[in-house]
Amino acid sequence: MPKRLFIKTYGCQMNVYDSARMADLLAPIGYQPADAPDDADMVILNTCHIREKAAEKVYSELGRIRLLKEAKAKNGSAMTVAVAGCVAQAEGEEIVRRAPVVDIVVGPQAYHRLPELIAKLSREKGAQLETSFPVEDKFDALPKETGPQGLTAFLTVQEGCDKFCTFCVVPYTRGAEYSRPLAKIVDEAKRLCDAGAREITLLGQNVNAWHGADENGNAIGLAGLIDALSRIENLWRIRYTTSHPRDMDEALIRAHGENGKLAPFLHLPVQSGSDRILDAMNRGHTADEYRRLVDRLRAARPDLALSSDFITGFPGETDADFEATMSLVREIGFAQAFSFKYSKRPGTPAAAAPRQIAEAVKTARLAALQDLLTAQQTAFNESLVGKTLDVLFDRPGRNAGEIAGLSPYLVPVRVKADERLLGRMTGVSITHALPHSLSGVISEATSHDITQSAA
Questions:
Q1: What is the Cα–Cα distance from 244 to 257, expressed in whole angstroms?
Q2: How far apart are the C-alpha atoms of 313 and 384, rounded to whole Å?
Q3: Taking 80 as the threshold, does the pLDDT of residue 1 lie above it?
Q4: Whose CA, among 29, 127, 282, 292, lies 20 to 30 Å from 146?
């Protein structure tokens, strides 16, 4: 009989990709998707260690899962519980000790071993623990066939980080930087497009650190990879995230101006506008270097929109340091942004740094920064009114007679139109802007049609 699999995904887009690949791994041994943990034979919590109190949130969820598992046992059925992802890597045996309900603990570079760990579990008693870093083995072991992700899909091309920012756990949970080979990425992208994807987001902890060789053996960076992918006829739009300023080379900057399939939207985290704090964070760049990088990007692609990450209340941050961040934001202008209060990550240098900032100060600074960023996001959306944007329609709208999709700038767009337009990327004249979405009317020209491309 088929077994039911429920995966709860926390955190980043890479975890979304990893969860989809776990489902692909387990499908051949009989696991089919479940909508909720209540009727699942296996529950996987695919965890993220970036956000505050991440581990405690997982333990809280495991408490609820324990009750479900006990109820199933009383009815004579079993449930296998696995914790995957970065909390699994960071906590390891502590998860087994604190949460006996867990049968399998598997890190983000070892989830390809899930079928083997499940088989071992069926033969032996006791939890199965796998938190090594065999990143090359993982991608080689994943099945070639992938489940359809829809019109928009994620594709991991790079993993790990060698930057060692003092606030970040990624080097300890994901390991060293690793770039997947060009040919394997292109093959997977073609399979995703054959399954219906028309927009692909390339993923990596430092995605623009990707490097490899082209078909002639010449060294290339992310710009070369994007160029190779853009030759896939039924791939209409390419994005990438998350990038690091230190890895934004001239070839990639040029690609933003020259490659028509590369979306005019870039997530480029800066974290702070203070050189003193950037140095304490070990970011490897100054605020002015970031400004000059943005100038070069906008010179290459004038309609480029930027997103970024910010941390308020990093240890030692003064009022002057925070004002330097506010000044940088005012000067550059961001279409979107993610901002957070600094929170300690066990084992990172910043967690033990002196001059930790009071919670009330962090909260007040975050509120001021978010007010500014929200105003900029609203202003950016309003600047799009009167323009015609290519919108990839992938879902019905919230209201009757509406459909919705994504603009090149990742802003959702709603129009009144027949659902027969779903699956097309169509020009839309933007008529109204809200803080988090746009609305408009279909223009005369249709850029792409999924049925025409399939033909």
A1: 19
A2: 33
A3: no
A4: 127
